[in-house]
Records
---
Amino acid sequence: MSFSNLYSSGFKQRNRDHFASIVRIALSDGVISKEEEAFINRTAINLEIEEQEVETIKANLDNYPINPPSTEQRRLERLYDLARMVFADKIADQAEKKIMNRLIIGLGFPHEEAEDVINHSFEQIQKGSDEDEFIASFK
């Protein structure tokens, strides 16, 4: 049995959906910078998404819904990835913030807290927090 067969198809689909959310943020300004592309490629490897799947996802973003995690820990892990993507090119433009707002609500954060969640996540990323520090800052 190969290593990738250890995970359920649901697990793999959630990874694809999460990856698509990251790509959405990168494409929100219409261009994927070199820094964003590098982040996308690293994330694809970490999520075990093959190169041909990456291209399929990029071309068909609408086929991948926001798939909210069932635990707070997973939700914060995904938020960390999304916030890092926004700052991969060192710029958080309005288009990225707008997409981030939608994704945060889609992840299960309350609508009325979305702006605070965005601001706090961006502060943590700019400060250089690693994933554990980032998650701890929300608890």
---
Amino acid sequence: MLENYLADLKASLTVSPIVKDIEVLEEFITSVSGYLECRALMIDGSVLYISEYFTICRDEIKRDKYSYHLQKDDELLIRWDNAPHHKELPTFPFHMHKKDSVQEHKEMKVEEVLIELSNIIE
């Protein structure tokens, strides 16, 4: 189950028309957890850093920690994550960082990030 989740995650990046190249920086799978960290070069020259730590619980995949960080020329453009800070936001722990702000946001998955970014990049 975890192997399929990891394969699907990488496949989402591979087939996206806005992703030019992918470099896996780290990945592992155990019997109960997995992790993927990779860098995706986007067609506009920006870079999307993806990290997900996930576990299996009662035959369901739980994403314990994620971050989708887009930058260009070493400058943050946007990042979605679920780090447990910004407790003041009603969507805690889910939020989005922009250059100078942190905003509430729903939980994100890589497929949703790619859809949002396709509206910005293309």
---
Amino acid sequence: MIENLLLILFAAAAVAGAVLMLLLRHPMRVALALIASMISLGGIYGLLGVHVIAVFQIMIYVGAVMVFMVYAIMLLDVRDPSFTERYSRLLWPGLAAVAVLVGVLVSAVWPDKDAGSAAVAAFTDGGTVFGVQAFSAAFLGEYWLYFELTSVLLVVAVLAAVAIVKLRRNEPAATPPAPVTQERGHG
């Protein structure tokens, strides 16, 4: 019972961190939301019984990759004044779209009351529909490569951002063109 409660708590925290990554505008705040999401994923791995992966999640991804990403964000030195705004102007339309998406997903998962209550009962009693150990075995058996490829993608993205910054710093400063004045004939 407590395992399921903790799983729901960590999953909600991971989703909240992911949603904040989409809503926040300042890159450092986005990185902190990603750190919170990764820590929550480490908690989920611990609940799944794969403690080595949980420790690697915290040490490697939160400790090393996120330090690397925060360093890259600080290296970018973003001084765009739009980052001083707390949220994007598209916050309310985005939240409305998320509400519609959640409504569609809930109606797809539970088309009628009987099927929905059976799925919830199987989830809470550790039945055969969903089990933490079955999920962890499937994840580590089938999907581990995708998980690791994501880390490679993150490193490549940071290296590309650093390369773009270096290219921009090496470009000569563009001088604005002189205003064009028209001479009028005297006549």
---
Amino acid sequence: MSLSKKTIPLYQLAHARTGDKGNRSNISVIAYRPEDFSVLLREVTVEKVREHFVFRNPTAIQRYELPQLYALNFVMDDVLDGGVNLSLNLDAHGKSLSYWLLAMEIDPNS
């Protein structure tokens, strides 16, 4: 009998703030508690975020670490259908993408 890993959605450990400019989305993930920041560092990687957003086909993702704020900031290029002013798909912008990121499953105990 194998034991499966227990995962949780990211929103149980963090909240998010977001912004967008043109075709670039900026999403910050902020730990609720300082002791959970190490989990964010380990679990919320560029590779995992790229995989989670594969349906948006980002051309580049950068991660910035803000340890004094217990936060990570992700900048994703070409995920907004050309930008808010060019797209008819308003649900793909700003807060919608941050909510999608917060739904990502992470393993807090690995």
